[in-house]
Amino acid sequence: MELRIDPDSAVPIYLQIVHAIKHQVATGRLKPGEQLPTVRELATNLRINPNTVARAYDHLDGDNVITTQQGRGTYVRERPDETHLARVRQEQLKALMDGVVGKALSMGYSVDEVREAFDVQMARWTRLKKA
User: What are phi and psi of 70, to 5 degrees?
Assistant: First the structure.
């Protein structure tokens, strides 16, 4: 499992972990039943405090994304809530769009310029996908 965190982000690190894992589950990169790294392993890999990872895992467990089995490990739930996963996918897309649109607007582009650029890129991607 590959996770990247941005220590300079305004989003707390535990929430970055939560969002990243939810995204990987929603997109199928993490499969139902797949084991996650231990709190200590993930904390070591990310070079963060284990309490931060534990907080993220607790949050994910509360959202029924993962389950922790004492002495066995932490796993992606076998039957993830499809409605929840669909909502997570929409939240992820909204967050991506908010970031791109917000940055473009803050750089002085008008709403119309952003919309036109989006339409051009979507047309380009559609053509590439058909090829």
Answer: -50, 125
- What does the domain layout of the chain look like in residue ranges? 13-76, 82-130
Instruction: Give me 50's structure tokens.
Output: 């284990």
Residue 50, number of CB atoms within 10 A of its CB: 14
Structure token digits, residue 78: 């076998």
Model confidence at 89: pLDDT above 80? no
Is 3.30.870.10 the CATH number for 13-76?
no
pTM exceeding 0.85? no
pLDDT at 67 over 90: yes
Q: Can you say how many angstroms the Cα of residue 42 is from the centroid of all Cα atoms in its chain? A: 16
* The Cα angle at residue 35 between residues 31 and 37, in degrees rounded to 5: 125
**Among 47, 54, 63, CA closest to 6:** 47
